[in-house]
Amino acid sequence: MVTHAAMPGRKRAGAHARPRSLSPYAVGVPLALGIIYGFYAAFIRRDGGPSTGGQVVLGLVSGAALAALCFVLGRIQRDLRHGLRAVAYGALTACAIGFLVSLTDTSVLRSAGLGLVVGAGVFLATFYLFYSREP
What we know:
Elements (H helix, E strand, L loop, with lengths): L23 H23 L6 H24 L5 H21 L5 H26 L2
Helix pairs in contact: 1-2, 2-3, 3-4
């Protein structure tokens, strides 16, 4: 009796596929990152003075934007290849860090440069992590 060996492939989502359920981490981690990021953005903009409504709005909007982007990236990351997933994490980190540096009233070149350096580091680390841990 000879049986055929079939290599298991990636399951593709069909028309009748059930949506993925949300784990507490899928919502909690982006929410925590958004809250911390929003508080830090408002803190940087405050610069030691009294808190104003504009700083609160800046913190809320920037935190909500980062939380939403992290949530979306977490939902679609399984559908991306190793390199593209690492590029997405690096780009998100580069934009987030560049925005925080731009709040300190430094030059655009410094905020873009620091964002690119940190984003490149995150790209390299996540590419290594994804490439070495997945088949």
